[in-house]
Fold:
Amino acid sequence: MTTTVADRVERLERQWAERPGVLGWLTTTDHKRVGLLYFWATLVFFGAGGVEALTMRTQLIKPNNSLVGPETFNQLFTVHGMTMIFWFIIPMTTGAFGNYLTPLMVGARDMAFPRMNALSFWIFLASGIFLYIGLFGGFGPDAGWFDYTPLGSRLYDPARNADFYTLSLAFNGMASTLTSANLIVTILKLRAPGMSFNRIPLFCFAMLAASFGLLFALPSLSVDLLFLYLDRNLGFHFFDVAHGGSNFLWQHLFWFFGHPEVYILIVPAFGIATEIIPAFTRRKMLAFPLVAIAELLVVFIGFGVWAHHMFATGLPTTTLVFFAGATSMVVIPSTIQVFAWSMSIFTGTPKFKTPLLFIIGFIVMFVAGGLTGIMFLAIPFDQQMTDTYFVVAHFHYIIFGAAVFPIFGGMYYWFPKVTGKLYFERPGQISFWIIFIGTNLLFFPMHIVGLLGMPRRVYTYPGGLGWTSYNVLESVGGYITGLGILVLFANLVVSYFRGPPSGPDPWHGPTLEWTIPSPPPEYNFATIPTVTSAYANWTDDTPPSLELDVGHKQHVSSLVDGWTAEIADMPHSSPWPILLALALALLFTMLVIDRYMFASIFAVVIALTLLGWHSKEPQEHA
Amino acid sequence: MTDVAVDPRARERFPLGWWGVAMLVATESALFAMMIGAYFYLRFKNSPWPPAGTPEPKVVVPLVLLGVLILTAWPMWKASHSSSPRRWLLLALLVQSGYFAMEVGDFQDDLHHFTPQQHAYGSLYYTLLGADHGHVALGLLLDVWILWKLLFGMTEYRRRALRGIAFYWYAVIVLTIAVTLTVTSPAFAR
Amino acid sequence: MTIRRLSLLQWIGFLVGGPVWFAEFLAGIGTSQAVCNPASGRWGIPHDAVQIGLMSFAAVCVLVALAASAIVFRETYDVEEQDAPPVGRVHFFAAASIGGNVIFFMIILLTGIATIVDRTCHQA
Structure:
């Protein structure tokens, strides 16, 4: 008996349906729901980081201000940095965009490890709550987002502040590690038939690069945090010079993680740009293989530049020139991409809708931030500018320009796919311009005031140094940026409730997600497509497809050329991820209050939870 | 549902679970690489190493034990490829447990001579070894778990789990080689 | 050339350059740190000789990888970038690897020459 399409869809709808209500969200393993959970949670943290930023800008609007004192200010800039990096950008790009879009773009029904995906979200959320409990309890980390020793050691940070630093980051790092492992295996193994390596969308190359970066860089941070925790709490001496340790060790381990981390921040955003540009310029990306390898190279070479953050520490130039040399060359892959993006826009037929506006703004700000970055590779210049506002200007142009702008553009671009509604274009464009003007007003004067000698991380400054007017501009810029962001989100919220229906493919986008309904059904693809291009929605041929409509089946491909390797049965909805995250949260809480006996008990609980997790086996194939 | 045939051109067909273990191996290898790097970094800065008053690391016993651990790769491989895996798994588990017990004994014995709270050498020595032994302990737990599951018969899931666990053990063996050579290195090069 | 040989050359071109550069990079940094630190400085490591050796070995390996990529690129010149595997994939990796290997080669030269020319262990 042949099944009709309607029969098949009805069966898929039934089998893939989520549990209703809140319980459905708490036990979900669907990558789209996990992606949305990440989206909303990261926005809350973004808001918190924004409040911290505006508080600092208000404190700095005039000399000798007393809105907040030095202790509070220390916690503000530390937690602002940690929040924006670890609880906004990374989880937004990899957890929200990565989780939601990657299976759709490779033609899969879910991530490779759906329950582990849910686990990574609950761990991420718990780690953020953990950090902010520390902050609101008066123990917020306060030694900078890189917490250099000896400042972060027990001697100079005697209370729990640095322990909240080490433990919240270690906890958060688990989530990112799990997400990156999931993204890698999904992109390598769950591709639709026919999707060989040269047919993987550039967004997925970017996710692959960022994930490999996280997988190999986070251990360095984990080791650093472990060492600091042991020094602080068990009397070890990794960083204690008097007993054979070294403060340089902290810095090397930190920056071996820290530098790849900053590339990890921007590479997924590059991926968003490489999808938006073809869609709104009606042409394929120029130099596809070079752009793909450039995304991987930025992260790979980025592992070799870490000590350019240590040019002012007195290390021998014999060592430092390695990093100066690699830093000069790491620019090249980024430049290749900038040329490819720009030339694709010039030679295409651009439609200047809001997503493309944000991408153009991104290119402008990324180039500006990149230029100041190259200036730092000259060791003498770096030694003058270290710890001044010039550095703050540089990295905010990069992070805000190269990570946040594409995130905003991506929100607009994929809004129709996720919600099934179109956003309102006019307010979208207005939000772009307000944010663009605001961020340039906020961050550009920082270059000047840094050159004039204003150090970073100061809670106030004296008058009469020529810094005041620039600080006023920056603070005003900050408020304007905040306003623009509010307009952006107001637009998205109103559009969600009042926007016209978008249909499946309002932009005639190039990739597979535009071939399915908006919002996508739980099972994503009714039939698994066979792919003949990285621009699967722009090809004319209709090759045979896979009908997998019994159970929760997923096509598994070979690594390189995308041939069918097997059909796997995927898990669907489970309470174990949230339970395991809860047990981990309790373990970390016991560690921060030095209750090691209870911590051991929770370690046992974790082991038992893992046993439960693996108690049910997938169905045998006939 | 149409029958889906494996494409004969698909040369790489490791199961998803194997790839999951591969990701774990990658990240844990980076972890150990950083700790070993830290060891040598501090070694470059400190003379004498170990510091005066701390005994030099033993060489013969650790290397012999290392050899024994390396040999367990063979029963693990047999277990993941044989039709009667339980006996091979049991053999591996017994030898691995013996290795672990001896290492824990040595660890405790070392603590009577110097502690991690005395100096950075001690801090690194015990952290590096502790991390390695911790990974061995996790391997033992995995062995017990899969052995328990296999008491109820073989399934495709359990076969794949066995492959994944064997891969985990190969990685632990390689990491233990690196760690052992690192902590015994002061005896080879002053 | 058969597709098997092309594929092999393509993998050499893609997989050799990066790891060789990174290993040489870490070895070079490690050598300079070993020479310039108090305890290990007494081991008498010949800094410049070691760096020249590392640089030469790595440069040769990367040039071989570059040559392999270039050969494959030329052999598959008429292949479109979105063509079916294996030949489409082979062409893609070859094109990508040329870019990567050129960059690795430049870093090896830059860093190797700079560390030798510089006054050894001079503090920045």
Remarks:
- Chain B has a mean pLDDT of 94.
